[in-house]
Amino acid sequence: MRVGFRAPGLPMTDASGPTLPLGRPGQPVLDRPAFERLTVAHRRALKLHCYRMMGSLNEADDLVQETFLKAWRARSQFDGRGSARGWLYAIATKSCLNAIKARSSAGRILGLPGRPPSEGGATGGPTAELAWLDPYPDVELPDIADDRPGPEARYEAREAVRLAFVAAIQLLPPRQRAALLLCDVLGWSAVETAQLLGGTTASINSALQRARTTLGERQGRRPQALRAGPDEGLLLERYMGAWQTDNLEGLVELLREDAVYHMPPWREWYFGRPAIGAFLRTVWGNFAAYRGVAIGANAQPAVGVYALGRQDSVWRPHSLHVIEPAEDRIAALTIYVPPLGPALFAAFGLPPEPVASKG
C-alpha cells in the first residue's frame, strides 16, 4: 500500500477526520491515542462502505474490525502526509474484495433475478440457502445530511444508502462494485481508484461504464427528491396505523398502482396494488393483532412489527418493514418476515416484545 495514500479532497486537515499531529523523530505518526481517535471518527463511514460492498450487517461489522486491525499493524507505513480516511478506505475495500472471493455468492439479493412476479398466496416457504440483503439501521449511519463526497461523485449521500441502490449494486461484479462506490459515491478519481484496485486508468473507466449501464438498467429512473420531508412522517404514521387498527384496505390504499413488494427470505414477490392486496389478504388474519415501532432503515421510513399469537396471546417480533416513499404513496415495500425479520430486531435496537404491551 502506498505511504500516505491520498483520496480526493481529503487532506489531513479536512473535516472528514481529526488532524493527526506528526510524531517526534523516531516515533510513529499514529500512536495509540491518535489511532483511537481515528477509529472513532471513521468507524460509521467505513461500516457503511463495507455494508454497501457486502450487503450484510454482520460482515460489515467484522470487516471494519479487520480494517482497523490491519491499519494498526501497518501504521508505520502511514507518514501523515496523505488522508487517513483514504488510507482506511483502501484497506477496507481490499478486505471486502478478499471476503467476497472467499464466500459462495458475490452479492446478496432482495429477489431472484429473472423470477416473474407472483400472484395469490405464497407457497414456497422461506429460503435459507440464499444470501439475502440486510437492511441498514439509520442509527448506524454517519451524518449523511452534511456529507460532502468528492467533486466527481454522481450520487447524493442519501441516494447511495437506499435499499434499492444497495440491492442494485450487489448485482455488479465485485471489482465494478468497488470502482463505482469509490468513484461515483465517494468521489475518488479513476487514477486513484486504479492505484487501489490495480490496473490502468482506462480499465477503471471501462469498469465504471459497464457498472453504470447495469445500474441504470436495474434502477430505471433515479428519484429526484431524496430529502426526508413531512410527507414521509405522515405516510409512516398512516402505515403503522393501518397495521395496528386491522385496516388492511387502508394499508393497500397507501400503495401506488405500480408498487413492488418483496418479503425476504421468501422467493415470491408481487407487482402492483391489486396483486399485493390479494396476497396480503391471504395472510392478514394469521395473528390476532399487530403493533409497530417506528425506526429508520437505509435513510427510509421503517417499522418493526410485533404480532400477537392467536393461540397463546404472546407478543413476538414478527417483521421489519422498509418503505420506499413516493410523495404520499408507497412505491416499494420490503418486509423481512420470519425467520429473517425477527433476527434483525436486535440490530435495530428493538426489544423482544413491544414496550408496555398488553396481553
UniProtKB/TrEMBL annotation:
Question: Which residues are in the RNA polymerase sigma factor 70 region 4 type domain?
Answer: 163-215
One term of GO molecular function: DNA binding
Query: Which parts form a coiled-coil structure per UniProt?
Result: none
Q: Where is the RNA polymerase sigma-70 region domain?
A: 41-104
Q: Name one Pfam family in it.
A: SnoaL_2
| UniProt keyword Ribosomal protein, yes or no | no
| This enzyme's EC code(s) | 2.7.7.6
Q: Where is the SnoaL-like domain?
A: 237-291
Protein's GO biological process: DNA-templated transcription initiation
The alphabetical list of record keywords is: Nucleotidyltransferase, Sigma factor, Transcription, Transcription regulation, Transferase
Renumbered residue ranges of the record's region Disordered: 1-24
Which NCBIfam families has this protein been placed in?
Answer: PRK08241.1, sigma70-ECF, SigX5
User: Which family does the record assign?
Assistant: Belongs to the sigma-70 factor family. ECF subfamily.
What is its quaternary makeup? Interacts transiently with the RNA polymerase catalytic core formed by RpoA, RpoB, RpoC and RpoZ (2 alpha, 1 beta, 1 beta' and 1 omega subunit) to form the RNA polymerase holoenzyme that can initiate transcription.
Protein name per Swiss-Prot or TrEMBL: RNA polymerase factor sigma-70
Q: Which organism is it from?
A: Mesorhizobium plurifarium
